[in-house]
Specification:
Length: 337
């Protein structure tokens, strides 16, 4: 009897010690931070990877001093080991293994910024996307016409149809997906802005407003001038005057533009030469910002029909008459009084 009691006591003691050890290890698992340094550590979960492989990899990389199976066992006990998602993860300083596991099942992958700059052309955007190493390349052809086919918009020209904005994406996102996002956002922004447009505008469609917005975008980088420049162009259209805006001529010149625009260029007819043709050009000439779209749809009231660059901070001088405009040209462009 005494032997039995002694055996039970010993077994109980062993169980208590084992439970204490397990509890101690569990507490270490919960609280011990991964060894990633102050800058953190970018860890990539490949497609098809599993938690056991990740646990082993974390240990082999020297990120954890705990046994590799701890993370795997934890995930199995949580019944979530199958929910991990592929992608790039930033393990920040003081992140514990359970916290890292939550990142994996929540899919908290690194989001990289990608900024589309207002005023650039659609082809420049495409080239920038193709050059981005974190985007997966799926486009076989990268001309604007072929890209529009690839994103399901074969009937669209494509110029001006992507919204300037800072987007965030996970590594591995496709080039096509990024372009679709930007196109969808521009479509949405334009539709919403069109619903609140001013009355009596010389545009029949939102697309015509987009064309005007692109011209405004290229004409000025000064926010408070956009509506005023829009007013000039709207009044010129309403009066049947040519827009006579250099950026459209430059766009129409394409690769022939060498950085300078000459008198002969203003006289050389192209579909985009608003010195030789009335009305709007056939397509936008750049990617307009939302502010430029708003300016196109809400032109400032006034009587000015002309403007010229002053050469100071990118600003312009506005004139109501041709005579006043010619004086402004002599003053600011020809440097004559």
């Amino acid at each position: 009897m005494r032997l039995l009691i002694k055996t039970i006591v010993v077994l109980a003691l062993i169980i208590v010690i084992a439970l204490a050890v397990i509890w101690s290890q569990y507490q270490k698992f919960l609280t011990t931070p991964l060894q990633v340094g102050e800058a953190g550590y970018v860890y990539t979960v490949e497609n098809g990877s599993n938690l056991l492989a990740i646990s082993t990899d974390i240990k082999a990389a020297g990120l954890s001093s705990l046994p590799a199976r701890y993370l795997y066992i934890y995930g199995r006990l949580k019944q979530k080991a199958h929910l991990i998602k592929a992608g790039e993860y930033l393990i920040e300083p003081y992140t514990s293994l359970p916290q890292f596991f939550e990142q994996l099942i929540d899919g908290q992958v690194i989001q990289y910024p990608f900024t589309i700059i207002e005023g650039m052309t659609s082809q420049q955007l495409i080239n920038m996307i193709v050059a981005n190493q974190r985007l997966t390349k799926t486009l076989n052809e990268t001309s604007l016409s072929q890209v529009m086919i690839a994103i399901g918009k074969p009937d669209n020209h494509g110029e001006g149809e992507f919204a300037p904005e800072t987007y965030h994406f996970a590594a591995g996102t496709s080039d096509k997906e990024m372009l679709k996002r930007a196109h969808q956002l521009m479509t949405l922004n334009l539709e919403q802005a069109w619903q609140n447009k001013a009355e009596d505008l010389p545009y029949k469609t939102p697309y015509e407003a987009l064309i005007m917005a692109s011209i405004i975008e290229k004409e000025t980088g000064i926010a408070e001038e956009r509506a005023e420049i829009s007013g000039v162009f709207v009044r010129r259209l309403q009066k049947g005057m040519r827009l006579q805006t250099d950026p459209t001529v430059i766009y129409g010149m394409g690769e022939n533009f060498d950085g300078n625009i000459r008198r002969k260029d203003l006289k050389t007819d192209t579909p985009y030469n608003t010195y030789t043709r009335h009305g709007l050009p056939p397509t936008p000439i750049a990617l307009p910002s939302q502010d430029a779209i708003e300016a196109a749809l809400h032109p400032a009231p006034g009587k000015s029909l002309y403007f010229v660059a002053t050469g100071k901070d990118g600003r312009h001088a506005f004139s109501n008459t041709l005579e006043a405009h010619n004086k402004a040209v002599r003053k600011y462009q020809l440097k004559k009084k």
